[in-house]
Amino acid sequence: MQTVRDVMTTNVEVCTTKDNVFEVADKMKKLDVGSIPIVEEGNLIGMITDRDIVVRGVAEKKANSSRVTDVMSSELVTVSTDTSIEEASQLMAENQIRRLPVVENGQLVGIVSLGDLSTNHLSDERAGVALTEISEHLH
């Protein structure tokens, strides 16, 4: 059985609670990514997405200097390194998410994306089903 450990990205860029929304957005732009994990002393406490910035920041007329904790998602679905890739795919489909933080003892150790699953070891058919379910719920 293949696990998340086999396909996850381990060199994950993060921000901390000391960063503001502008700094997170700037990092997203430089890295060309749509989400950044928020950590405090290595512990994962949230994720902030480009959509979070728009919906909880811009649309609510919050300043760019707002704290990341004001716009981040703190109720996260996470997996461990031993989670099977099938279970990770199922969690993504059920929760309509494209990225899962990988956590061990509260510490962020990686990220697994739908792309990681589809290009590495998950059948194209199963990844396609998960992506279709995620996309249908977003519209």
Automatic annotation (TrEMBL):
Highest taxon listed in the record's lineage: Bacteria
SMART domains in UniProt: CBS
InterPro entries: CBS_dom (IPR000644), CBS_dom_sf (IPR046342), Diverse_CBS-Domain (IPR051257)
The protein, known as: CBS domain-containing protein
Key words of the record: CBS domain
Organism annotation: Priestia iocasae
Coiled coil stretches, renumbered: none
TM stretches of this protein: none
One Pfam family from the record: CBS
Classification of source organism: Bacteria, Bacillati, Bacillota, Bacilli, Bacillales
Record domain CBS: where: 8-63, 72-128
